[in-house]
Amino acid sequence: MKKVRLFACLLACLLAACPPCGPASAAETAAAQPGTAGQEELPPETGEETEQDALKEEVSEALAAGIRPEYRALDCVEISGEAYKGIEISLYPAADSSEEAQTAYWTEVDTAIMTRLFNLYPIKEYPAALLEYVTGSLEESYRQYADMYGLDFGQFLSSYLNMDEETFLRETDEAAKQTLHQEILLKAIAEKENLTVSDQEYEDGCAQYAVKYGYDSADALKAAFDEPTLRISLLMDKTLDFLEKEAHIHEIIETESESEAETEAES
Length: 267
Known about the structure:
The chain contains 11 helices and 2 strands. The protein is mainly alpha-helical. The protein has a domain at 1-16 and 84-125 and 178-252: Trigger factor, domain 2 (Orthogonal Bundle), CATH 1.10.3120. It is globular.
């Protein structure tokens, strides 16, 4: 793989969203394997387990084990035809051959691809267990930050995020859905195209992630995140690589007169 994106929803949320301590600390926090302290569940008064109770129990077990629930993406979105192939993209070429310029260029390509996919394929439903798992993991990460700062959860949210708990839970749910939307679309295309991550690709990808995100080794990365989370991230990378190759990219070439006109306008 020519680039490292790290798309998996839980990793993306934790690495990008946790405010006070930055990405590295967020990843270290995730490594603590979120539990369910303070979330005691009472049995149903009828003595019978409801569907919602079963879901909560499943998610609690997944959180405690640090393993994200599995799901079939094509049950969540309908990918009819092959409109995802041959996406038309027009953009300026990379400024130069530097890693920074190439990263910016391919990020723009990926953004254009995802924007088109969002417009083509609305999500029918989000996997309930996975959505609960992602929001629960995010909440637990912030609760760990609150403990680290010696604050109760409400004080932490008010001081660092300027919101109350109700607003936090609502925005966490929305953030989880946004990241899952991207994951579901790419995973559904992977299922349709029979794309998978081999064991060798998994090992190579973990090594790349470890270097990119400052882990001492691939083993250190694997200790921080469970295998299904890493595998879905790598699968999303692989699917985007596939879509990049299938896309029709038209590079915009400026004429000398257009370049001079822009320079004059800027001055």
